C-alpha cells in the first residue's frame, strides 16, 4: 500500500480518489465481461462469426478503457478543461466525417472505421460536451459580461444538429438533457428552464413525424407486439428470482442485439430478478455517491460538470433497463460498462474518469502539495 507521505502522482491520487466509486466501477466492468461472455457466443453464431469474437474484442477494448479512466482520474480541473475542449473539437470533426464517409448501419451513419475497429464519435461527445459547457457556464457566472450561456447553447445546437443529421435521437435527447440540467444548476431563471423543458415534447413530435424509424418504434410501443421486446420480457418471466443458470438462457438465441441493446434481459433470464435488482442497486449507489460528492466539491465548475456527468450515466442506464421491460420505446442504448461495444466502454470509462478526477479531495491535494505541513 502507498504511504500517506508519498507525494508522487500515484500516491496523491490514491489518497484523494473516492475508493468506493472506483471499486463500484471496477465491479461493473467485471460484471460486464461476465455478461458479454454469457450473451455474445450465441449472437456471434447467428452472424457466422467465431463464438469468441465479441468476447475477445471486448477484452481488447477493456485495456485502453481502464487506462483512460485511471489516467483521466489523476488530472486536475485545469488540464481537464483544456483537454476536453481540444477533444470535443476533434470529436465534432469525426461526427461530421461519419455522416460524410462513415458506415451506414440500420439507416444511420454514426460510425467510422479505424484500423479494423468501429468507433461511434458521438459517444465521446457526451462527456466532453458536459465539461466544456460547464466551463462556459462557470465563466458566465463568475466572470464579467461573458455570455457563457450563449456559447454553451450554441455548442449544444451544433452537436444536436449533427446528431439529427446522422440521425441519433437518443443521443440528441441526452445532450439536450445535459444542457438543460446544466443551465438549471448554473442559475438560469426558472421561466427559461421550464420553457426549454416544454419544448422537448415538440421536438420528439417532430422527430416522430419526420423520421420513419422513430415513428416505427413509437407505434410498436403503443400497439404492442415488438418481437425483440416481447422476447426480452419473456426472459424476465423465465428467469424468475434466481435465473435458469449461467449459459442456460435462450433469449440470446433469438435476439441479434442480446450482447448490447438487450444484455439486461440476458442477465434477467440467466441470473434472475435478484441479480438484476443487485445490478440496479449498484448503479444507484454510483449515481447517489456521485451526486453527493458533486455537492460536497469545491467550486461551481466541479459541481456543474460532475452532476451532469453523473446524470448522463444514470439516464443512459435507466433508458437501457426501461426499454428492456417495455416501459419506454426501444432506443438501442447500451448499458454502461455492461453492454458489448468499444465506443460505449471507452465513453463510459472517460465519464467515470472525469467524475473520479473532479470528486477528489482538493483539501487533501493541497496538503500533499505543501509537503504535508498544512
Count of alpha and pi helical runs: 14
Number of strands: 3
Assign the structural class, choosing from mainly alpha, mainly beta, alpha/beta, alpha+beta, or little secondary structure: mainly alpha
Q: List SSEs in N-to-C order.
A: HHHHEEEHHHHHHHHHH
CA-to-CA gap between the ends?
23 Å
Strand content: under 5%
Largest sheet: 3 strands, antiparallel
Give descriptors for this structure.
single chain; 374 residues; mainly alpha; 3-stranded antiparallel β-sheet; 14 helices
What does this structure look like?
- A hairpin with a 2-residue loop joins strand 2 and strand 3.
- This protein has a three-stranded antiparallel beta sheet with strand order 1-2-3, covered by helices on one side.
- The protein is globular and about 60 Å long.
- Helices cover 72% and strands 3% of the residues.
- It is built from 14 helices and three strands.
- It has helices at residues 9-16, 19-46, 53-73, 77-101, 121-142, 148-165, 169-185, 190-210, 212-223, 227-239, 263-295, 300-324, 342-358, 362-369, and strands at 103-105, 108-114, 117-119.
- The model has no long low-confidence stretch (mean pLDDT 86).
- It is mainly alpha-helical.
How do the strands and helices of this protein lay out in sequence?
Blueprint: H1 9-16, H2 19-46, H3 53-73, H4 77-101, E1 103-105, E2 108-114, E3 117-119, H5 121-142, H6 148-165, H7 169-185, H8 190-210, H9 212-223, H10 227-239, H11 263-295, H12 300-324, H13 342-358, H14 362-369
Antiparallel strand pairs: 1-2, 2-3
Helix pairs in contact: 1-14, 2-3, 2-11, 3-13, 4-5, 4-6, 5-6, 5-7, 5-12, 5-13, 6-7, 7-8, 7-12, 8-9, 10-11, 11-12, 12-13
Amino acid at each position: 500500500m502507498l504511504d500517506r507521505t508519498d507525494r508522487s502522482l500515484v500516491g496523491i491520487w490514491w489518497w484523494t480518489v473516492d475508493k468506493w466509486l472506483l471499486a463500484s466501477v471496477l465491479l461493473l466492468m467485471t460484471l460486464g465481461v461476465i455478461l458479454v461472455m454469457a450473451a455474445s457466443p450465441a449472437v456471434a453464431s447467428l452472424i457466422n462469426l467465431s463464438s469468441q469474437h465479441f468476447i475477445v474484442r471486448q477484452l481488447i477494448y477493456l485495456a485502453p478503457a481502464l487506462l483512460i479512466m485511471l489516467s483521466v482520474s489523476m488530472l486536475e480541473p485545469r488540464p481537464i478543461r483544456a483537454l476536453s475542449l481540444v477533444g470535443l473539437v476533434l470529436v465534432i470533426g469525426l461526427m461530421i466525417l461519419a455522416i460524410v464517409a462513415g458506415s451506414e448501419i440500420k439507416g444511420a451513419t454514426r460510425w467510422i472505421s479505424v484500423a479494423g475497429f468501429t468507433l461511434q464519435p458521438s459517444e465521446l461527445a457526451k462527456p466532453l460536451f458536459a465539461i466544456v459547457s460547464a466551463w462556459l457556464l462557470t465563466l458566465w457566472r463568475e466572470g464579467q459580461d461573458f455570455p457563457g450561456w450563449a456559447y454553451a447553447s450554441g455548442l449544444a445546437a451544433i452537436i444536436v444538429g449533427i446528431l439529427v443529421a446522422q440521425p441519433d435521437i437518443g443521443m440528441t435527447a441526452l445532450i439536450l438533457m445535459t444542457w438543460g440540467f446544466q443551465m438549471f444548476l448554473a442559475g438560469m431563471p426558472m421561466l427559461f428552464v421550464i420553457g426549454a423543458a416544454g419544448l422537448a415534447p415538440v421536438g420528439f413530435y417532430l422527430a416522430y413525424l419526420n423520421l420513419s424509424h422513430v415513428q416505427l418504434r413509437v407505434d410498436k410501443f403503443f400497439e404492442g407486439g415488438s418481437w425483440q421486446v416481447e422476447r426480452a420480457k419473456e426472459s424476465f418471466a423465465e428467469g424468475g428470482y434466481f435465473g435458469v443458470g449461467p449459459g442456460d438462457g435462450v433469449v440470446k438465441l433469438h435476439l441479434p442485439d442480446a450482447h448490447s441493446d438487450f444484455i439486461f434481459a440476458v442477465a434477467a433470464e440467466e441470473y434472475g430478478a435478484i441479480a438484476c435488482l443487485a445490478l440496479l442497486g449498484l448503479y444507484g449507489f454510483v449515481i447517489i455517491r456521485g451526486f453527493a460528492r458533486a455537492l460536497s466539491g469545491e467550486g461551481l465548475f466541479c459541481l456543474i460538470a460532475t452532476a451532469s456527468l453523473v446524470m448522463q450515466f444514470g439516464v443512459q442506464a435507466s433508458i437501457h433497463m426501461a426499454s428492456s421491460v417495455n416501459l419506454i420505446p426501444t432506443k438501442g442504448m447500451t448499458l454502461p460498462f455492461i453492454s458489448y461495444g468499444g465506443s460505449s466502454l471507452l465513453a463510459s470509462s472517460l465519464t467515470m474518469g472525469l467524475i473520479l478526477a473532479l470528486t477528489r479531495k482538493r483539501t487533501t491535494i493541497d496538503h500533499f502539495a505543501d509537503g504535508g505541513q498544512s
